[in-house]
């Protein structure tokens, strides 16, 4: 049984679009999971509580950008987290480096 070239092209385009959409969805869900985590929220809260850092950034408003998932600095396991959060304000931008260790007794960061 022969398959026409146009059908193969359509199948290739469909598979490419479906795969790209799946990868995009997974990337979005990973970003959402990172931004809702305790270690991410606590790090940003500490940054917002530091008036010198906020003044140097030109914040508020503080803009928090997506974490680069391929960055080797970003590592998370059940008891430790090491992440690099891109932030910016109206004057300047940079990275918020954070390391969190979960207390085994109280299960708090």
Properties at a glance:
109 residues; alpha+beta; 2 domains; 4-stranded antiparallel β-sheet; 20% strand
- How many domains would you count in the coordinates? 2
Q: What's the helix count?
A: 3
Over the alpha carbons, how many angstroms does the gyration radius reach?
Answer: 21 Å
Alpha-beta classification: alpha+beta
Number of strands: 4
Major sheet: size, sense and barrel closure? 4 strands, antiparallel
The helix fraction, in percent, is 40-55%
GO biological process, one term: mitochondrial respiratory chain complex I assembly
Protein name: Cytochrome c oxidase assembly factor 1 homolog
InterPro entries: Coa1
Transmembrane segments: 12-29
Explain the overall architecture.
The protein is an alpha+beta fold and 109 residues long. It folds into two domains: 36 residues; 73 residues, no CATH class. Helices cover 45% and strands 20% of the residues. It contains three helices and four strands, in the order αααββββ. Strands 1, 2, 3 and 4 form a four-stranded antiparallel sheet that branches. Strand 2 and strand 3 form a beta hairpin. The model has no long low-confidence stretch (mean pLDDT 88).
Task: Please give a quick description of this structure.
With 109 residues, the protein is α+β, with helices and mostly antiparallel strands. The chain has three helices and four strands, in the order H-H-H-E-E-E-E. Strands 1, 2, 3 and 4 form a four-stranded antiparallel β-sheet that branches.
